[in-house]
Design a protein that fits this description.
mainly alpha
């Protein structure tokens, strides 16, 4: 069994890097270009995470990558809609 501290650090680094993916375009590009770039970079990151999951679980690569993109982007879209709805209610 691996050391719990090592696993915790790896998990923390993974969350940090994954959290940076959608933010980096906003630091480098004008806002109009950053939005679409952020969505694309996030989708690519999700697809790669799905492939990694497939390698570990011996699942089909493309299917796992596609599932991860659909679930991740679906969650993001739902969160956006809920945020907009609450923003309208709170205004």
């Amino acid at each position: 069994m691996e050391k719990p501290l090592r696993l915790a650090l790896l998990t923390g680094v993974a969350f940090f890097v994954a959290g940076l993916l959608p933010i980096i375009p906003f630091l480098l590009l004008p806002i109009s270009a950053a939005v679409l770039t952020s969505v694309a970079v996030t989708a690519i990151g999700l697809f790669l995470a799905g492939i990694l999951r497939a390698v570990v679980s011996l699942a089909p690569l493309v299917r796992s990558g596609t599932e991860m993109v659909l679930v991740g982007m679906g969650a993001a879209a739902l969160t956006y809609v809920l945020g907009r709805s609450l923003g309208i209610v709170l205004d």
